[in-house]
Design goal:
Elements lengths: L13 H17 L6 E2 L5 E3 H8 L4 H6 L2 E3 L5 E4 L4 H10 L8 E10 L11 E10 L4 H18 L4 E7 L3 H15 L8 H9 L10 H8 L4 H4 L2 H16 L5 E2 L11 E9 L7 E7 L3 H4 L7 E7 H10 L12 E5 L1 H17 L4 E4 L5 H10 L4 E5 L1 H6 L1 E6 L4 E6 L3 H15 L1
Parallel strand pairs: 1-5, 7-8, 12-13, 12-14
Antiparallel strand pairs: 2-4, 3-4, 5-6, 6-11, 7-9, 9-10, 10-11, 14-15, 15-16
The structure holds adenosine-5'-triphosphate and magnesium ion.
Adenosine-5'-triphosphate binds next to strand 6, strand 10, strand 11 and helix 12.
Length: about 425
């Protein structure tokens, strides 16, 4: 008998492991710049965690999950994704008392789907989850972090697709409208869309079959039924991305295959990949924490497929960059100050400086306490005076000293000061 690895499951041999390590180490260096801390969650969970979060009627739960009964008669699943587990851990360990909490993870996921290029049964994901915040800047920050990761890895030819699916009520209202619209065209849809029609009609929106695409292109759009609040939030996300010069394509049919998404959803595709060209995907899931038994709280995250990002890197013949980690806490006072600091923070990250932006409206004192807790070496502050004078306050947290410096010198000042601290230590 010849023993081989299972179909759709890959050995990663020593000559290749550095490719997985490269992305994992990049995540470990880059995500903490955004305030994410690493979490390691189990590979097995009770099956009902996934049925309840991802949704009973989704492809992942219905067709793709590896489920077995353990010796105690419990139904156990190999994790098909990590968001549900992160939320479970967040609730189980009472992180829900702490305001905005940020986790990142990496590891294998399991889905019993048809193996092909870019689609495996055991594959690796790296992802982030930011829990306990409904602010639209968070959506933009999570997306910026995703784009930053892919750029830092060396990719160029990728595209950000953006949509809002609205809140639970918007989704339900749209499902009704779509049902009415598709009712008499039902027999024309592909076999899986005929099933989706009964069970999860929103999924017909991203069907790849040309016939369904044509029918859907004539259907009403989700953006037409969004509540004023959902619309407003979505506009704010777009404006924040504009501020960071992050380009995106609005894609009104983007819905994602998991039930827990609300409001912002996004995907990043790579031009040089074939049919499986989505390398990263994510969105908001404002109901999931409550659905799993917690107090209602907003949350947002993404996951990238390591194998697909590696295929994209190969397609672009990319070299491997190196990143230092250091730490600055950035505070903007007032509306103008916080918008400006959001922009500056992102600019510093591009300069290889680790920045945590305190954009939640809090007192200066509580921001400084937070900076201290995070062990940041420097704090930078912009208020109305600084905005008017094109300056910035630079505070040395170890020495307790502070200077007002010209905004245009911030990068060189920080690099020099962080450099001399690193020399001392
Ligand atoms: P797809 O439509 O490509 O199947 P999905 O909607 O199932 O993606 P998510 O559950 O959002 O994907 O997972 C996030 C990312 O993980 C995907 O964008 C992709 O890069 C990667 N991924 C998902 N399933 C697989 C798989 N079977 N093999 C390899 N990578 C995968
Ligand atoms: Mg899939």
């Amino acid at each position: 008998m010849e023993l081989t690895a299972l179909k759709g499951v890959q050995d990663i041999l020593p000559d290749e492991v550095h490719r997985w390590d490269f992305l994992e180490q990049l995540a470990q260096r880059l995500f903490p710049r955004y305030g994410y801390r690493r979490i390691i969650i189990p590979i097995i969970e009770e099956s009902r965690l996934f049925t309840r979060s991802i949704g009973q009627e989704t492809d992942i739960v219905e067709k793709e999950m590896y489920v077995f009964t353990d010796r105690g008669g419990r139904s156990i699943a190999l994790r098909p994704e990590a968001t549900a587990s992160v939320v479970r851990a967040y609730l189980e360990h009472h992180f829900d008392q702490q305001g905005l909490v940020k986790f990142f993870y990496s590891g294998p996921m399991f889905r019993g789907e048809k193996p092909q290029a870019g689609r495996n049964r055991q594959f690796y994901q790296i992802g982030v989850e930011a829990l306990g915040c409904a602010h639209p800047f968070l959506d933009a920050e999570v997306i910026a972090c995703a784009v930053d990761f892919l750029s830092a890895a060396g990719l160029k030819n990728f595209r950000l697709l953006l949509n809002s699916v609205g809140d639970a009520e918007d989704k339900a209202a749209f499902a009704k409208i779509l049902t009415r619209h598709l009712q008499d065209k039902r027999e024309l849809l592909c076999a899986s869309c005929r099933q989706r029609f009964e069970r999860n009609i929103l999924r017909t929106l991203d069907c790849k079959s040309p016939v369904c695409k044509k029918i859907i292109s004539e259907a009403p759009q989700l953006s037409d039924v969004l509540s004023p609040e959902s619309k407003q939030d979505f506009l704010q996300v777009q404006r924040a991305l504009d501020r960071l010069n992050i380009g995106y394509t609005l894609m009104p049919t983007l819905v994602r295959g998991l039930d827990y998404y609300t409001k912002t959803v996004f995907e990043i595709t790579h031009e040089q990949l074939g049919a499986q060209n989505t390398i990263l995907a994510g969105g908001r899931y404002n109901n999931l924490i409550a659905d799993l038994g917690g107090k209602p709280a907003g949350a947002m995250g993404f996951a990238l497929g390591v194998e697909r990002v590696l295929l994209a890197l190969d397609a672009e013949s990319v070299p491997i960059p190196v990143f230092p980690d250091t730490s600055v806490y950035a505070i903007g006072l007032g509306d103008n100050g916080s918008s400006k600091i959001f922009e500056i923070g992102q600019m510093l990250r591009r300069e290889n400086i680790a920045v945590q932006i305190g954009f939640e409206p809090r007192s200066l004192k509580s921001h400084l306490r937070q900076a201290d807790k995070l062990g940041c070496l420097f704090v930078i502050i912009i208020g109305d005076n600084e905005l008017a004078g094109n300056t910035i306050i630079l505070k040395n947290m170890r020495q307790g000293t502070q200077d007002v410096i010209g905004l245009e010198t911030i990068v060189s000042e920080l690099k020099q000061r962080i450099g001399s601290i690193n020399e001392q230590s």
